[in-house]
Amino acid sequence: MTITSIISDSKPDLQPYEELYKELHQNPGLSLQEHFAAETAAKYLRELDGFEVRTNIGGTGLIGILKNGEGKTVLLRADIDALPVEELTGLPYASKKKEVDVEDGNEYSVMHACGHDMHITSMLAAAKTLHSSQKDWKGTLVILFQPNEERAGGAKAMIADGLYDPKKHACPIPDAVLGQHVMPLASGTVGTRVGSFASAADSFRVTVYGRGGHASQPHMTIDPVVLAAHIIVRLQTVVSREVNPREAAVVTVGSIISGRTENIISSEATLKINVRTVTPETRKAVLSAIKRIVKAECEASNSPKEPLWEPTSSFPFTINDEEVTNTVAAAFAKHFGDQHDSESPPLGGSEDFSILATEAPNKNGGKGVPYTYWNFGGVDPKKYKDALEKGTMSDIPINHSAYFAPVIQPTLSTGVDALVVAALAFLT
After folding, report:
1. Is 25 labeled as ligand-binding?
2. 116 is in an annotated binding site
3. CATH of the domain spanning 3-198+317-427
4. pLDDT per position as a tens digit, 39-62
5. Is 34 labelled a binding residue?
């Protein structure tokens, strides 16, 4: 029996899942506060007879384990957190939720601006499909819902909390870890790629120091705003003048905070810096250049003390295993046909997904099991084609935009199929 036939026989009616998606979209939770999503996922898994559900792993993380005879073990992962973004999509099911962030105590509008609600819904429908088709496959299936992906803390927290520890949460050791992400690509399409698939990301909060005083007497002060401005401008040369043009790197100063009023020169300024790189060599060079520039500009401004560096997050590289990726890609080619791209461009963003594989114990007594991560499209196919032909792709909302909202179908159906096809590629 082919995988496509199994899906045809076992895939549930997706109408209830479309309603579930809307409910999840209207009830987003910030990183570390994904209570509604976690409770919903646990409820759905518990309704599937045979699933062992284990909750509160590294926060709101959870797993569902379905043992179905001898065979390989496959782990499917979905992330569940939302973002501090005010939704502007105008959809009838748009989020109007506000939430106080436990990290800083501030209240924010909250939105699933990265599509994690689509990930959750696809995963639950995929779990239902695989549960209904147990006669057609053998092995162990692990469904994992991970919190706090946006701040690069969820996968680490689940590992640290004993995800694979036989005396704690006892997640079966997977032979392959699989995951996906909805992207601003044509809905109905899926994309795989061997090797580098997502960049590393390093974020820092850097505080530089001056000497405060009255705005009418700048000669009696050391202005940290001017110092920060020089740093920001100088950092723009790191990628353009210090990175090989054949490499990819991004340096972004996403925030600068200094002072409270216009007639006072502050005593310090804080910059929030985000760095994306795709190779270890470039990562090392870019981070070194940033620290050199900050230090030099502080000296040039006669700053009274050394800058303060505070790492805020760090995402690893996502480098897809060749054998696992080729196995998934071959199965996708049979099921999706020309809607599958085996040379999909690498993602611009970053992921902590790989930690669930690289930190898993393996059969050799060490760490690390193979993994692959793919994308699937969420943009109305006609809208995407028109934008491509007219050269207006910049009008397509991207992940983290207040306007990002995947079209429900065929996005949901594709997300479900991709998870099921990938899992069955190892379990049949």
Report:
1. no
2. yes
3. 3.40.630.10
4. 999 999 999 999 999 999 999 999
5. no
